[in-house]
Amino acid sequence: MEGFDEDDLYAALDWLASQQERIERELYRAYVKAQGQPPVLVLYDVTSSYFEGECNELGQYGYHRDGKRGKPQILDGRPDTHLLPGGRAADGSLRYASVRGGARRQAPDRAPQRNRAGEGRRREDKWAQLQAQVAERNAFVQSSRRASAAAGLAALQRWAKSHKLSAFVTLTLKECVLVCTLDKEAKAQDALLDGCYLLETDVPLALMDAKTVDARYRDLQKVERNFRIVKTTFLEIRPIFLRKAERTKAHVFVAMLALKITRRFEADLHRTFGSTEDDPAAITPDDALVALGRLTYLYTTDRNGQRHTHLPRPDDQQAKILSAIGLSFPLKAKADKLAA
Predict the structure, then answer these.
(1) CB–CB of 258/74 below 8 Å?
(2) Which three-class secondary structure state does DSSP give residue 15?
(3) Which of 268, 300, 301, 302 is nearest to 285 (CA)?
(4) pLDDT tens for each residue of 321-330
(5) Is the overall model pTM greater than 0.85, yes or no?
(6) What are the tens digits of pLDDT across the range 12-50?
(7) How far apart are CA 61 and CA 72, in angstroms?
(8) Is 14 exposed, middle or buried (0-12, 13-18, 19+ CB in 10 A)?
(9) DSSP labels for 189-251?
């Protein structure tokens, strides 16, 4: 494309950065209008994206969720708003709250029977592994004069604790021999919690009951899924090749706007074709993009040197996809005179 280079891309980012607050306000107003009331609860999560280069104004070194050590990064977040019964909080404010594992105001969740059985099998596997390690360590101590039974005891105690066996397993040392003792009653007590997960929140009970706490916590998986969409091949927010702070923010904002379009695109497809959970052959966003990607310009030149641009007629699948997402497809050709 003639007359277009990276400076035009930077200019677009600069413009978007100057308009971000306005766009966000408009999106919020549209959300409130569609829902009929403002949100009371906003669930959010953060992830990280890394930079190529070392001169970004926002990039810092630290723990990286992508495992890209030695590269500066930023944290970017993804909120997921939810309405609660009763409208806004008593003080009229928007409430940012957390729902996480813990022990304050709790909502116990009992997993299906297969999950409880799976936890029991994992416990038995860990117990068998510990016994094998004890036998191996005892054999090593007996065969080596320099081996330390006490060091082996400490190492296996750490292993038992990290694998959550220490509540019903005791490791002791008797005459340089490691002894592993199982408390069956304590083990049975520990098994009573199989399949249970405790959630805590700082939202008052008057605004959110235990059932709603559980439902909102499960909604966080949507945030994690959105992160995968933004960070992988579908939208590719990373790596970031920018230096200025405002352009970096605009880059992330572009990805978030693209995510909103992607979610709307996916919702429209689900309404028409269903989801892969119900029908393995349902059309996914990737399938739809591949199908629509076949709609390309066709060029012809007549005997007078006039170039014509044509668009092919959508096939049945393409027509259904376009109808699902509410788009019409132009079919008229246009003519462009070629320079002599």
Answers:
(1) no
(2) helix
(3) 268
(4) 999 999 888 7
(5) no
(6) 999 999 999 999 999 999 989 988 988 766 766 777 777
(7) 5
(8) middle
(9) HHHTTTTEE-EEESS-TTT--HHHHHHHHHHHHHHHHHHHHHHSTTT---SB---SHHHHHHH
